[in-house]
Write a structure and sequence with these properties.
CATH class of the largest domain in chain B: Alpha Beta
Strand content of chain B: 15-25%
Number of strands of chain A: 9
Distance between the termini of chain B: 73 Å
Oligomer: heterodimer
Largest sheet of chain B: 7 strands, mixed
Radius of gyration of chain A: 16 Å
CATH architecture of the largest domain in chain B: Alpha-Beta Complex
Low-confidence stretches of chain B: 1-11, 207-211
Helix content of chain A: 25-40%
Number of domains of chain B: 2
Low-confidence stretches of chain A: 139-158
Number of helices of chain B: 10
CATH topology of the largest domain in chain B: Spore Coat Polysaccharide Biosynthesis Protein SpsA, Chain A
CATH topology of chain A: Aldehyde Oxidoreductase, domain 3
Structural class of chain B: alpha/beta
Largest sheet of chain A: 5 strands, antiparallel
Chain lengths: 158, 292
């Protein structure tokens, strides 16, 4: 299983050890952090929720796709769920490869696909007391405006 | 062609009769794809297709070019609209153009009461010398062009009729030689255009009384969990597909997300909206995601 969830802080040192390979000339790790603002609103904390049965299957499929598409050694992705504060790590992805180029490309691919495909939701809580499910609240008012198949760059928190 | 050569031609190469299911409509009053509406556990498109296939050897589905990838349609032989314009006349003309020798048993896919007997009578009474053989409406006596046999000879007349600004196949049949039949059953050609008519048709077809209610397990996440006020429930429902079920729950809980914004999973795998549901299935509706 190369994709998993955790309800506690991600242990990046332990995760990194899982992708170590003596044939690898390099490793790329990505950390996604909770940011203090989004779309002009001051964010104070986030809630992450996932449909874990399906998300783990789909996450494993993404890692398998990365291993097919890029000449890499190992890949792993961990996503946190629950209540997160500012600066907390929401997602970690690590890839080892013979050469750095593939490791960068594969790591970016994995994070992008996870954001677009996995049934994971985040609720932002704002300084002004409001809150909202990212990608759900505004698109309810303007359905043709934002589609969940589109890259989530507009609302990325990292 | 003289009558002698026409007779010889007919003897050597009788015009084949193909079936054409019209499934290119916009379903604007229904606000969902009429071809996907289910009766007795089967989509109306599949019901119409199978009904026609019991009476003619080859059946096609008439679609607009943008519908060719739709999974419910793509698995069938298709006739893609090849002439300009809108509406059923375009589908009929495209079929006549695709197989210029063939006659077409044309069926709309919003006729849930259509029966084998209705088609048998139409085929038996077919007049090959007319441009079409059709039923009269039981309500207003006007021709019903979308449960009819259209002969190859109608093609040039239809082309000319549309070129002159005509678009209504019913009016076309009123002005051209057509054999018109009295329907055997008053309801046989009633069509279903609105959610109210669909609900009525389901009742008349006995969906609820045939023991088709089943228990499903629904899990809710994120915005839908908050709007439903629960994270899961076991539900007794007659909904035949995830699309029907989302409609039922959206009405009950006032979901703010339209079905187009949501995906669905059945038994922890992404699913089609038109997949038939079975008792015990676990269904999850997936609002727009935002991982990372």
């Amino acid at each position: 299983m190369r994709f998993r969830f955790t309800e506690t802080a991600i242990d990046t040192a332990a995760a990194r050890r899982e992708v170590v390979d003596l044939g690898a000339g390099g490793y790329v790790g990505f950390e996604g952090w909770v940011r203090d603002h989004n779309e002009g609103q001051e964010v104070i904390r986030l809630e992450y929720e996932a449909f874990q049965d399906l998300a783990v299957k789909e996450g494993d499929r993404i890692i398998a796709e990365a291993l097919r598409r890029f000449p890499i050694k190992h890949a792993l992705c961990i996503h946190r769920v629950g209540d997160l504060g500012l600066g907390d790590m929401a997602i970690w992805a690590g890839v080892s490869a013979t050469h750095r180029g593939e490791a960068f490309d594969a790591c970016r691919f994995i994070v992008d696909e996870v954001k677009h495909r996995l049934p994971i939701w985040k609720k932002e809580h704002y300084r002004n007391g409001d809150s909202g499910w990212v990608n759900c609240e505004r698109c309810a008012a303007a359905p043709q405006h934002v589609h969940h198949d589109e890259p989530a760059v507009l609302t990325a928190d990292n | 062609m003289t009558s002698a050569t026409a007779a010889a031609h007919a003897a050597t190469a009788p015009a084949p009769l193909h079936g054409l299911i019209l499934a290119g409509g916009s379903s604007s009053r229904m606000q969902r794809d009429k071809a996907a509406l289910r009766y007795r556990g089967q989509s109306q498109l599949d019901r119409a297709f199978e009904l026609a296939a019991r009476h003619v050897s080859q059946v096609f589905v008439s679609v607009r070019s943008e519908q060719t990838a739709d999974p419910a349609r793509a698995q069938r032989p298709l006739i893609v609209d090849s002439v300009a314009g809108e509406g059923p006349i375009v589908g009929i003309r495209s079929a006549l153009a695709a197989f210029p020798q063939a006659a077409w048993l044309v069926l709309a896919c919003d006729l849930p009461f259509l029966s084998d007997a209705t088609l048998e009578f139409l085929l038996r009474e077919r007049d090959r010398t007319a441009m079409a053989t059709a039923y009269r409406s039981a309500h207003n006596d006007l021709p019903e062009p979308l449960c009819a046999i259209w002969e190859p000879a109608a093609a040039p007349a239809l082309d000319a009729y549309q070129a002159a600004g005509g678009h209504c196949p019913r009016k076309f049949l009123m002005r051209h030689p057509a054999r018109l039949l009295q329907p055997l059953d008053r309801r046989a050609l009633d069509n279903v255009n609105t959610p109210e008519e669909y609900a009525q048709a389901l009742t008349l077809l006995g969906a609820a009384s045939h023991g088709t209610k089943m228990q499903l397990k629904i899990h809710y996440y994120a915005l839908l969990r908050e709007q439903a006020g629960r994270s899961e429930e076991t539900l007794e429902t007659a909904a035949a597909t995830p699309a029907d079920l989302y409609g039922e729950l959206a009405t009950r809980y006032g979901f703010s997300l339209s079905r187009e914004q949501v995906k669905v999973a059945v038994n922890s795998e992404f699913s089609d909206w038109s997949r038939p549901l079975a008792g015990g299935d676990a269904v999850v509706f997936i609002p727009p995601v935002a991982g990372g």
